[in-house]
Structure formats: C-alpha cells, structure tokens
Amino acid sequence: MNTHRYSSRLSLRLLCEDEVAMGPGKADLLDAIRTSGSISGAARAMNMSYRRAWLLVDVMNRCFREPLVHSAAGGQRGGGAQVTLAGERVLALYRDMEAAARMAARPKLEALMAQLKD
Amino acid sequence: MNTHRYSSRLSLRLLCEDEVAMGPGKADLLDAIRTSGSISGAARAMNMSYRRAWLLVDVMNRCFREPLVHSAAGGQRGGGAQVTLAGERVLALYRDMEAAARMAARPKLEALMAQLKD
Questions:
Q1: Residues 6+ apart with CB under 8 A from B13
Q2: Using only C-alpha atoms, what is the Rg of chain A?
Q3: Do A117 and B64 touch (CB under 8 A)?
Q4: Which chain A residues in 66-95 lie under 8 Å from chain B, judged by CB atoms?
Q5: A3 touches chain B (CB under 8 A)
Q6: Hey, where are the domains in chain A?
Q7: Is A2 on the interface with B (CB under 8 A)?
Q8: Rg (CA), chain B
C-alpha cells in the first residue's frame, strides 16, 4: 500500500452565522488549555499568538449557552484558565462526532486511496 | 430550534504528500466540468480563474492512476473537457463517503447544536 505518501483529513465545523463555533482548531485549543492550564500556555503550545487564542476562546464562549473556558481572575495573562464542565461535554461530543464520521468514511476512503498512483 | 443561525460543514480531503488529490473544491469542480463540458465553463461557473481550474485538474490527473478529466484537443481553451469513467468512479466514491460521514456525525452534531445559544 501507498500509505506513506497518502493521508486523509476530515474536518467538521459548527458555524454560528459566519463564525466557527467549534471545529478542529478550537477543539485542539480546548485540549491545549486543559493540558497547560492557561490560555497563554495553550497558545505557546499551539504556536499561535495569545491574542489569537484569546479570540478563539471568546468566539466559543459567545456561541455556546455556557462558557467553555473559564479564565481565572488575575489580569489578562496572569490567571490560569480551565475548560468548564460544559466545555468538557462539548469537546467529548465533538471528538465522538469526528470518530463516528471517520469510521463511517473509512470503507469509501480505502477504495479512493486504491485509485491513487503508487 | 435555532437552525436558521447555525449550520455545519464537513470536509474530507485525500492528501497526496502536500497536495490535495481530492476534496470538496475538486469534487465540485468535477461536477461543474460535467455540467459545462469544459474547464473554462466550469471555472466561470465556480467563479475561479481558468488557470486555477486547470491547475486543480492537473493535480487530480497527476495523483490518480488514471486521469479524472480528459481535455479534448483544440488549444488550451478551445477544446471541451469530459470527466472520464475513472473520474466518475472517484466522484461517486467521494460523494458516498461524504454522505456516510455526514449521516454518522448527525446524532452528535444535533447534541452539539443543542448546546449553542438560541
């Protein structure tokens, strides 16, 4: 098989008008906030600016009924940040959705891969 | 339900090293070539330059074992273009794959949508 040269990518996005409420980048950001305990740490780990990470968090917190990330008091960069229970629930649903879609796509994906050049 | 403000987008891409061998844009381009009978007509219908459409076709034709689009002789813009049998097969597999992934994602997607603000 030619799996070394070929790969596939699946992405699912929830759009809230023209904004992405949840998608691959925001899900990874939630994971990174969970790991690092702060937005600035997550931004560093994902190689993005603090400002960009903060804006992504802001979109999520505005689009969902309950905030997905809670920033502790202590100044813009000072306090830590946690993924809330609502955030954990949304992230788990999103990852389950991705996994279900990926599994369902697999048979046709393999048939398509077989059509690619060696 | 808040379906008027919210939508979702699923995209599946087959990557051939760093090039996209097949994805949402290329599948739509194949559809447009089928409808218009030429690359230039498809480009117009999709609001892209002839050059861009031609490059996308070139990537597909290089990545797959058999060309997905056959351009008739008669100069760069002169001749028509058809989706080959191999192209029809790949397009059908791709659309089936999208449909299967979308259907599998639906239950979790609905649960996620329910978490969005009204």
A1: A8, A9, A10, B20, B22, B23, B24
A2: 17
A3: yes
A4: 66, 86, 89-90, 93-94
A5: no
A6: 14-113
A7: no
A8: 17
Distance CA A42, CA A69 (A): 12
User: What's the rounded Cα separation, in Å, for the pair A75 and A72?
Assistant: 9
Determine, for residues A112 and B97 on separate chains, whether the beta-carbon distance falls below 8 Å.
Answer: yes
pTM of the entire predicted model = 0.88
Residues 6+ positions from A34 with CB-CB distance below 8 Å: A82, A83
What is the chain A residue with the closest CA to B20? A8
CA distances, A32 to each of A51, A57, B48 (Å): 15, 12, 37
Would strands B6-16 and B19-22 be described as parallel, antiparallel, or unpaired? antiparallel
Angle, vertex CA B14, rays to CA B35 and CA A93, nearest 5: 105
Enumerate the H helices of B7-84 as residue ranges.
24-36, 39-45, 50-63
pLDDT by residue (tens digit) across B15-32? Answer: 998 899 999 999 999 999
CB spacing of B64 vs A105 below 8 angstroms: no
Q: Look at residue B75 and tell me whether its pLDDT is greater than 90.
A: no
| Class of domain A14-113 (CATH, top level) | mainly alpha
Nearest-by-CA chain A residue for B99: A105
